[in-house]
Amino acid sequence: MKKINLGYAICGSFCNFENSIKQLEILSKKNYEIFPIMSFNAFGLDTKFGKAKDFNDRIESICNKKIINTIVMAEPIGPKKLLDIITISPCTGNTLSKICNAIIDTPVTMAVKSHLRIQRPVVIVLATNDALGTSGQNLGKALNMKNIYFVPLEQDDYIKKPNSLVSNFELLDETIKLALEKIQIQPIFL
Questions:
Q1: Contacts 24+ apart (CB under 8 A), 136-140
Q2: Name one Pfam family in it (predicted).
Q3: What's the pLDDT tens digit per position in 11-66?
């Protein structure tokens, strides 16, 4: 059986890196050939959650591939039809805003633009503290965009962060499989 070429993009929601890497490990044992892609911030910033080099080394080891970490490296994804599907796991509110407004200034946004141009699916694993606030308009816009699919979302702390939504990372594989069939997993909101 031919493997599915999966672009696995990671943006700077650093508190969700472990959740994302756990899913990356799970997917790497399934029928996926995984191509890692990282935003400039995700690839280059050391934070209280860990050092960039340590995360990058783990990701490259799991995927057995170098990370696509420049706009130039990401641009051929669409024209060369390199991927069957892309997931952004995690996708920040900032990256969602850029996708919704055609701002192409990171490897992740270039990969998505290039991939959407050939009408292939993108799965968003959203993690943002303002999804029900200022990013709400972008969430609404993206939910209505062709070839954009969401991993189901839930409020992660409705008391301390009432505007925050985070996708359920454990539903990523199921969401990808349905998105390949042009189906949005339901329900979207848990």
A1: 136/163, 138/93, 138/96, 138/97, 138/100, 138/101, 139/96, 139/165
A2: Flavoprotein
A3: 988 889 999 999 999 999 999 999 999 999 999 999 999 999 999 999 999 999 99
Sequential DSSP letters for 107-154:
HHHHHHHHHHTTT--EEEEEEETTTTTTTHHHHHHHHTSTTEEE--EE
Which class is domain 4-179?
alpha beta
pTM, two decimals, is 0.95
Per-residue buried b or exposed e for 80-114, using 16+ beta carbons within 10 Å of the residue's own CB = eebbbbbbbbbbbbbbbbbbbeeebebbbbbbbbb
CA distance 87 to 172: 9
pLDDT score of 28: 96
The domains of the chain are located at 4-179
* 105, 130 contact by CB (below 8 A): no
Q: Residue 174: how many CB atoms within 10 A of its CB?
A: 13
SS3 13: coil
